[in-house]
């Protein structure tokens, strides 16, 4: 009976993906989670006489544990809008595009996508915007579709994984109870080496392939200059943000200050753009105030003259984070139901039979994330379930929570795009116009990350115990 809620959830998610496609996260997945929660409660009631008060208490506790993540997600929405409209992100894109040459195109596209993804915190946005542009440039150079898409996805998911603006990064850290920047720093021990290996492969491939073409980045650079004030001085904000991160300031404080700095920069460097967004058509403090507020909480559409570039500079603000927040609340409801009914513990007992030491524990966590990506077709659900299922085990065996958060991301975040029916696989293959199985062999970073996570765990590097307990 323990598997019934999971079976129901898997069936509902598969149906949702088949019916709604890329729009599954707009509400269908959330309803599926609540339906699976109801099934879990029914099973618990008839098998264990579940008390309703205990269920409510567990669900409330689960949702309350994600309150910091919800606040951070709202701040991320605001920082995404302010950093874009202020010209900070466009400046990074502008200077990044200048390094593209045929011989180093694959490496450059990965690095450029990594930079953009680090700044915007979204692999989906990166792939759907600059990734599409790079597909066109790569085809003009004569590269095969699989190689181009692989380099784009490699960079996009590397940046997404290490960006403090990424919702999956915030989710993995919060569900495991790990401070955001602690999670990012610890994840770099497996992520950076894997990315370097991937870049080396792309570098060698770029110099050994015979390609021709000049690319068309000039049009994009001109449009960015016409729309935004592009200046290296704008990069002071990300530099200061990096300093605050390096000094280990609380993530909420860093994000809030970064928003204020970006707002100040936007008012100074892009005043006409702020007025345009406000829709007032006039001047004055009130019009600027309205524009800034719109950038922070709402959707912005900036006309650059190039549809592809319009998508890149489009922002959703805090409002764009609501589907993710909604999903977190529903997923925590499902987790609360599984915990209150004891079904999560029953499933854990089965899986823990195969856990003998550090490497096998990490491998089980990584494998669970990959399995959930295949079965549930969504990286958010995969991260939350992998973290929830193993959280107590890591604590009882004396491992730091950051090992759990890293393992769950190494297994769930990066492998989601490799599954054709997963929401990530569906989205990226549709946007890039390349079948999932075509680009899969060239997404070196995405399938090497889980392997690297297990290898590092087996060596014991940077793995500390917080309790004097054995692995038995």
Structure description:
This protein has helices spanning 4-20, 28-48, 52-65, 67-85, 88-97, 105-120, 123-141, 145-162, 167-176, 180-208, 217-227, 236-246, 251-269, 271-278, 285-297, 307-313, 322-341, 343-352, 358-376, 379-396, 401-412, 423-432, 436-439, 444-459. The two termini are 28 Å apart. The protein is built from 24 helices and no strands. By secondary structure, the chain is mostly helical. Helix content is 74%, strand content 0%.
Mean pLDDT: 83
**What is the H-and-E element order?**
HHHHHHHHHHHHHHHHHHHHHHHH
**Helix count from the secondary structure assignment:** 24
* Strand-residue proportion: under 5%
Rounded radius of gyration (Å): 22 Å
pLDDT under 50 segments (min length 5)? Answer: 468-472
Topology:
Elements (H helix, E strand, L loop, with lengths): L3 H17 L7 H21 L3 H14 L1 H19 L2 H10 L7 H16 L2 H19 L3 H18 L4 H10 L3 H29 L8 H11 L8 H11 L4 H19 L1 H8 L6 H13 L9 H7 L8 H20 L1 H10 L5 H19 L2 H18 L4 H12 L10 H10 L3 H4 L4 H16 L13
Helix pairs in contact: 1-2, 2-17, 3-17, 4-9, 4-13, 4-15, 5-6, 5-11, 6-7, 6-8, 6-10, 7-8, 7-16, 7-22, 8-10, 9-20, 9-21, 10-21, 10-24, 12-13, 14-15, 17-20, 19-20, 19-21, 19-24, 20-21, 21-24
Describe the structure using short key phrases.
472 residues; mainly alpha; 74% helix; 0% strand; globular
In short:
The protein has 472 residues and is an all-alpha fold. Helices cover 74% and strands 0% of the residues.
